[in-house]
């Protein structure tokens, strides 16, 4: 007998550890588990825990199922169990990252209304970029840093001709051991290779800090995608959002 019941985050931690090991990638919505409006569901079969689901933004709408996992021996009826999660939670949308092959296959089966806004990157092969007129180093308190418009001021900088032309770093609030690279190049010196060289060096610093580099950017931000690729990363997936038809997202007791 199968049951899908609300639970605390602590109740799914063991299952989620298996999920993270299987995925072996940075999870875009990892921090969402601890946020207000997130609800967790435990999937049980004959009294044993076999999977879980996580619904976010329930305070804004009926919610989005952003994580769904079943242990491999119990995936024969995965689509039915996902429908059961949708029924129990009333979720009206699904989100997944395509490097989560198991969940992505289910999302594509449940909806034709699928969009993508984010490209995910993992570490690839270094292009061994050499600095021509710049130096990569840690940021100092005395550095005069240009005004940033899209990213925070990073802990590392690119200095060219005595001026800071780019800063960057990595964020550690994703699932270990992954870290999210970020950078910004001064607007008047873009397209000179500073961003790619900075990304390449940040990859090294990230590994030295005991973390695995990853990154993400918008699907329309072609310049950023090229910078990440040239800096030694590779595209590893995309974020997908699927809107469910009304009859799919209405709980049984409301039908």
Walk me through this protein's architecture:
There is one protein chain. This protein has 255 residues and is an alpha+beta fold. The protein has two domains: 2-97 and 105-114, 3-Layer(aba) Sandwich (Aminopeptidase), CATH 3.40.630.30; 126-231, Aminopeptidase (3-Layer(aba) Sandwich), CATH 3.40.630.30. It has five helices and twelve strands. It has helices spanning 13-23, 78-89, 101-110, 194-208, 222-230, and strands at 2-7, 39-45, 48-56, 64-70, 93-97, 114-123, 134-138, 156-160, 163-171, 178-185, 212-218, 233-243. It has a twelve-stranded mixed β-sheet, with helices on both faces. Helix 4 packs across helix 5. It is elongated.
Q: Which CATH top level class of the largest domain fits?
A: Alpha Beta
- What's the count of strands? 12
CATH architecture of the largest domain: 3-Layer(aba) Sandwich
| Beta strand % | 25-35%
Cα end-to-end separation: 24 Å
CATH level-3 fold name of the largest domain:
Aminopeptidase
Shape: elongated
> Going across the major beta sheet, what is the strand order?
1-2-3-4-5-12-6-11-10-9-8-7
In round numbers, the mean pLDDT is: 94
Largest sheet at a glance? 12 strands, mixed
Structural class: alpha+beta
Oligomeric state of shown chains: single chain
| CATH H-tier superfamily of the largest domain | Gcn5-related N-acetyltransferase (GNAT)
Indicate the percent of residues in helices.
10-25%
Element-by-element helix/strand order? EHEEEHEHEEEEEHEHE
Question: What is the CA-atom radius of gyration, in angstroms?
Answer: 21 Å
Stretches where pLDDT is under 50 for at least 5 consecutive residues are none
Count of discrete structural domains: 2
């Amino acid at each position: 007998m199968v049951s899908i019941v609300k639970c605390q985050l602590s109740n799914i931690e063991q299952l989620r550890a298996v999920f993270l090991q299987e995925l072996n990638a940075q999870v875009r919505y990892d921090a969402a588990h601890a946020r207000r409006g997130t609800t967790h569901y435990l999937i049980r079969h004959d009294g044993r825990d076999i999977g879980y689901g996580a619904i976010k933004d329930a305070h804004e709408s009926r919610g989005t199922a952003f994580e769904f996992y079943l242990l491999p021996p119990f995936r024969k009826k995965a689509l039915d169990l996902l429908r059961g999660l949708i029924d129990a939670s009333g979720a009206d949308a699904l989100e997944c990252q395509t490097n989560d092959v198991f969940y992505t296959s289910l999302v594509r089966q449940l909806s034709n209304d699928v969009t993508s806004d984010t490209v995910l990157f993992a570490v690839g092969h270094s292009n061994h970029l050499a600095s021509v007129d710049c130096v990569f180093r840690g940021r100092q308190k005395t550095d005069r840093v240009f005004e940033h418009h899209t990213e925070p001021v990073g802990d590392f900088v690119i200095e060219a001709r005595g001026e800071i032309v780019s800063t960057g770093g990595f964020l550690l609030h994703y699932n270990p051991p992954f870290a999210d690279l970020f950078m910004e190049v001064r607007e008047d010196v873009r397209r000179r290779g500073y961003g790619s060289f900075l990304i390449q060096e940040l990859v090294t610093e990230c590994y030295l800090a005991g973390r695995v580099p990853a990154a993400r950017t918008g699907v329309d931000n072609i310049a950023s995608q090229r910078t990440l690729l040239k800096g030694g990363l590779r595209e590893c997936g995309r974020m997908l959002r699927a809107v469910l038809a009304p009859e799919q997202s209405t709980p049984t007791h409301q039908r």
